[in-house]
Structures are given as C-alpha cells and as structure tokens.
Amino acid sequence: xxxxxxxxxxxxxxxxxxxxxxxxxxKQASVDADTLVEPFVGAGSVFLNTDFKHYILNDINADLxxxxxxxxxxxxxxxxxxxxxxxxxxxxxEAYYEYRVQFNQSSDVYERAILFLYMNRHGYNGLCRxxxxxxxxxxxxxxKRPYFPEKEMHFFAEKAQQATxxxxxxxxxxxxxxxxxxxxxDPPYVPLSKxxxxxxxxxGGFNLDDQANLxxxxxxxxxxxxxxxxxxxxxxxWTRKIYSQASLDEIQVKRTISPKGGSRNKVxxxxxxxxxxxxx
Length: 280
Fold this sequence. Notes:
By secondary structure, the protein is α/β, with parallel strands linked by helices. It has helices at about 20-30, 45-50, 60-75, 75-85, 95-105, 110-120, 150-160, 170-175, 210-225, 235-240; strands spanning about 35-40, 55-60, 165, 180-185, 230-235, 245-255, 265-275. The protein has 10 helices and 7 strands. Strands 3-2-1-4-5-7-6 form a 7-stranded mixed β-sheet. Keywords: Methyltransferase, S-adenosyl-L-methionine, Transferase.
C-alpha cells in the first residue's frame, strides 16, 4: 500500500488506523474484484486508501452524501467557497450557533454542504448528531484554529470521479451490488455497555435487529452470490453469535471518541469475513 491518505472530515469511528488491515483482507478475499461497495462509507478512509476501479459509496446520512456529491461536481468552486468560512471571526460560539441555525433551516443543497463541512471542523469532537426531528445539534468545539483540509479535499474530489454516491438504507445497497464486487461494511457499532450507545448519527438509528439483518445479508451475498463481505464491529458475545457463519479475526484498536486523549483505552474489534468456500 502507498502512503496513507487522511479523510477531510473528522469522524467518529473513522477507519484511518485500520485501512491496512481492511485493504489486505479485501484484496485477499477477492483478487479480481473491480468494484468496492461500502453501505456505510462514513468519512471514506477505506475508499481513499484502496485501489479499485469503481466504488459504490453509500451512507444513510443525507448531509454527508450531499457534501460528497457537491465536492465531486465542482471541486474548485466548492473548496474556494468553503475556505471563506474558515476565518477567525467564525471560530466563536456566537458565529457557530448562527451558522448551525442557518444550516438547519436551509433546503439549498450547496449551502448545506458548505455549512456541514464548517460544523464538522468547528463542532465538538467532530461529532455528527441529530435530534429526533432531524435537527443537527452538535455544540461548539472550542478549537484554537480549526484546520481547513484543502489538500485532502482535492484528493477526495479527484478520486470521487471513480465513485457513485448513494443515500439508501443498507438493505437497498445489497440489492444493487454489481458482479465482480467486494463489500466492506462499517455499521454503527454494537454498544459495549447500556450507557455507551451512540445511535443518533442519523435519524432512525441502527438497532440490534439491523445488526442481525446486516449479518444475514452478508451471508446471503457471500454464499449465494459469491460476493465477499467484510464487516467490522465491537468484539462482544453477541456479535460473535450473529457473525457465526463468518471467519472471525480479533484486532485491538484505540477508541476515537473521548474528550481526554490520554484516556483512550484499547478495545477489541472483530473483522468478520463472509467468503464462499472455493469449489474443488
């Protein structure tokens, strides 16, 4: 693998630290695949650090997919316009909350995309969170000088020319998988405790029934359609149970959501690979 490329968004649960692990598994599972399908693309670290001919990149978060679509469509104009918000005057709570209101009231896709990027870099810990009414409600982040990811955005926009972006439910994405594909799923993780749940990333959440259904879809894609599927999740008794038909690997990773960097403990994650047995 070449030098790693960072995503231009800050993102809870981003896979930048695991891209070598994931890339290796995807390539081993499907040497000849020309399309990578990601039903939960998030910040896109796996997309940015793999070398497939085509990508189908999906996320249920409409604002995220809208941002990617606008950046792909007019990269130079978009980056230039977005950069104008990254000035000292806008790095204050009053400005941030005014822009947040503007975002929540706007129906203009270009304006929402610009403001979504601004809030991602100025909001607390790079979180993306909505209330039950679909209102973005992440508080101000108090950063000394938020970074404007110009170089990373140009790289993303260039590579995005190979990608199709969709905003669908994960089950719909599985119906659209083309031949000669490999699938990587990074769903919202199963909570490690009852108080650790973080499900308000998109309106509607992602519950335990969804987790089990995703495992069933992966099994079906691999064993009936010969499409390899890799899923990452927390290593728990329950995830081991629902992924019982997959080949399981355990890896240690650092938590990425914590206000205190020094207290980020390592946790175990599972890599569940669904792969049809080779015919003799």
